[in-house]
Amino acid sequence: MKKAPVRQCVGCREMMPKKEMLRVIRTPEEEVLLDSTGKKNGRGAYLCFSSDCLNKAIKNKGLERSLKVSIPDEVYEKLKKEMLKLETRS
């Protein structure tokens, strides 16, 4: 039996299986996006499916540290909107 890959949430710092988390990537063009498929090309950071974790990651600059790029406020607002869509869908 294979072990499931585990990743740490940049918001709450909890370890969870990779499949149960949302991937945020920095593309080679320095764009920050949500990667719902988990297969897009770029440097990734993981978040729980919770806007609380996104808010914690924004507050403690966990996403900026993990993606090694400074993230403007407009991108954070876009990520919050996309996270709300995902939360209402599930």
What does this structure look like?
The protein has three helices and five strands; from the N terminus they run βββββααα. It has 90 residues and is of the alpha+beta class. The strands form two sheets. A three-stranded antiparallel sheet has the order 4-3-5. α1 (51-59) runs antiparallel to α3. The N and C termini lie far apart (29 Å).
Strand coverage percent: 15-25%
- CA-based gyration radius: 12 Å
Task: Give start-end ranges of low-pLDDT stretches.
Answer: none
Mean pLDDT: 89
Name the strands of the widest sheet in spatial order: 4-3-5
* Helix percentage: 25-40%
In angstroms, what separates the terminal alpha carbons? 29 Å
**What is the number of helical segments per DSSP (H or I, 4+ residues)?**
3
Shape: globular
Class by alpha and beta content = alpha+beta
Secondary structure: number of strands: 5
Q: Sheet bearing the most strands, described?
A: 3 strands, antiparallel
The H-and-E topology, N to C, reads as EEEEEHHH
List the keywords.
single chain, 90 residues, alpha+beta, three-stranded antiparallel sheet, two-stranded antiparallel sheet, 3 helices, 22% strand
Helix-strand layout with pairing:
Elements: E1 6-8, E2 15-17, E3 22-26, E4 32-35, E5 43-47, H1 51-59, H2 62-67, H3 73-89
Antiparallel strand pairs: 1-2, 3-4, 3-5
Helix pairs in contact: 1-3
